[in-house]
Amino acid sequence: MKRWIFFIALLFCTLSFASTSTKFFGYLRTGVGFNSKGGDQECFYNNGTIGNEFRLGNECNMYSELGAQSYHLGSQKNKDDPFFKSTINFAFSMPGHKMFEVFDSNDVKMWMSEGYVEAGGFGDLPLTYWVGKKYYYSNDVHMNDWNHYSNTQGMGGGVGNIPLLSGKLAVALMREIGDKKSSSGTHGLALWDARLTDIKITDNQSLHFWVGIGSSPKGTASNTFYKRGFGTIFGAKHRYEFRKGFNEFSMMRGSGILHTLGLDGDSAPEKDVSRQDDAYRLRFVEQATLRLSSRVSFHFATSFELRYSGAHTTKWYNVGIRPMYFFTDHYQVLAELGHSWIKDNSEVNPDGSTLGGRRLTRVTLASQVSVGKGIWGRPVIRLFYTMSFWNDANKASIGATDKAPTYASSNHGSAYGIQGELWF
Fold first, then answer.
1. Total domain count, the chain
2. Above 80 in pLDDT, residue 79?
3. What is the span of the domain harbouring residue 162?
4. C-alpha pair distances (Å), 124 with each of 121, 127, 182
5. Does residue 418 lie in a domain region?
6. 91-147, pLDDT tens digit by residue?
């Protein structure tokens, strides 16, 4: 592990000296927490949902990112000039249980989350070009820690900033390589991705469209035949921006190898076994951030998703709100209230009957000191108290040994603690 740390430090130093302009960026979420019985904090999740719904007070690990972006030609200040830049970003995740936590263990991890080169602005063309590993998505639902739209981050390359209609077109090839091999070599998913963004309806409203076609090769291995994978993605988003916030509605549908709306479809589906060709996912997301007055702001989000795996159906919806009140520029109080419901018709009780919908409701109260006034102000240091409630159908899932075993026989649980969060 010492070699990794030395390599990262040397890499960042090299980037600083090798380019005319280097900036560092990062994220950190850290803290300490207790459960209501005095033990270590345990977090409550509605299994099968995506992200971390109503995340305030429900984050049990320490997570950070540290990256550097270097301009080898041009600078960040003059974005219309020709440029060449490189970006490297490392992510770290650990329980935060002690001073010295050893990397490469099951709970302490480090990985390169981004590493790409980007250029553009050459000649009379506004085009940009990139290749590498990249966070290739638009915005997220912050309250749920969920990259919900056009989230195909990973390895790839593409061309962007192509003028089309009144917006900008970006096209990319993204790849996700699996671990199965056949007569075609190592199987992987290839996605041809196209995004048309910022089509102006009015000065404050815009439309965004997303289309993707995915595939994987066929092949044979011993007595196993892998059929060719194929799938599509279609998405659309309407964004309304105003002086005191924004409102956004998005919808998308993925099918076949792209039924997860990402790059994690099965790239080696077995003939006469896999039902992936029939699978699909339909998703709707509505979110808003609004400043009601000089002292009150809030986040709001709700979503609905219908999934069909080719064999069974899953329905999921959630709704949540995070209001915030500003006493001064630096002292604030906030709350978060959310409800989640998911029903997978393949889940059954021990007697064979259908399990039914699993519910989770969370209420969190917090006070915080912030670097400045505003709902997006960071860094912050906050005190929080959170309570979660769930129905009988959710007992086994939430009380699993890797989640919240202390509350395995209960329908509710709570936690309190201190948390710090920043980005730069």
1. 1
2. no
3. 126-267
4. 7, 9, 46
5. no
6. 999 999 888 888 766 788 999 999 999 999 999 899 999 999 999 987 799 999 999
